[in-house]
Design goal:
Elements lengths: L3 E2 L1 H14 L4 E9 L3 E9 L7 E5 L2 E5 L1 H7 L3 E7 L2 E7 L5 E2 L6 E2 L1
Parallel strand pairs: 1-6, 2-5
Antiparallel strand pairs: 2-3, 4-5, 6-7, 8-9
Length: 107
């Protein structure tokens, strides 16, 4: 089981954590929503809760709850800019289909 970050994603998270002045790492999860069923959730992690799994990649800790890990195992998190837009991109090998707007996915 693994969650990985590209150099660009790791640098972006490190910058956010440095500007914030505190934080253990990044919490990655999924929630039920949208037309395809699930959406990614990214939050700062100030600690670890019981049952959480912690991955350390590119000097960034990624915290995932066990229910979300089933859907996220093998995901690579990237960060990119396209024109005026910038944001995280998920390369999740478990995704079978995505909605047309890109807001949700199913496995």
């Amino acid at each position: 089981m693994a969650i990985t970050l590209t150099d660009a994603a790791a640098d972006h998270v490190k910058g956010f954590l440095a500007n914030r002045g505190k934080g253990f790492g990044l919490r990655l999860a999924v929630r039920t929503t949208g037309c395809s069923g699930m959406a990614y959730v990214l939050e700062f992690a100030d600690g670890v809760e019981e049952g959480d799994v912690v991955f350390d990649d590119n000097d960034v800790k990624v915290v995932v709850d066990p229910k979300s890990l089933v859907y996220l195992d093998g995901t690579e998190l990237d960060f990119g800019k396209e024109g005026l837009n910038e944001g995280f991109k998920f390369k999740n090998p478990n995704v079978k289909d995505e909605c047309g707007c890109g807001e949700s996915f199913n496995v």
